[in-house]
Amino acid sequence: MKNKSFMNRLGFALSGIAAGLRGEKSFRLQALGLCFVLAVLLFTRPAPVWWALLLLAAGFVLTAELLNSALERLLDHLHPEEHAIIKTVKDMLAGAVLVMCLTALAVFAAFLWSYA
Fold this sequence. Notes:
The chain contains four helices and no strands. It is an all-alpha fold. The chain has a single domain (6-115), classed as Helix Hairpins, CATH 1.10.287.3610. The longest helix is centred in the last third of the chain and has 32 residues, at 84-115. It starts with 5 loop residues before the first helix and ends with a helix.
């Protein structure tokens, strides 16, 4: 992958996002959450700092889910049988996504509280 053009690398990245949308219900749900956040932001037109905080939080959730999905697929491919350590790693990955989702919800709650 080294020394590929920007357009090639962009294509790889967009392909990865498309694979996430096609193959991961959680990613689709979280992408829908981003759309909801965007709609709320467009409706309320808050200060730029809220745009930054909410979009960063939503972006981190989507990033965490893509990393979780990619690593789970890799682990399943490399070791298709059940294994205690792999289960623990996958559980920790899911936990990381949960922590990021809860953090994003907390940021959204703070926004709603400040807006009220």
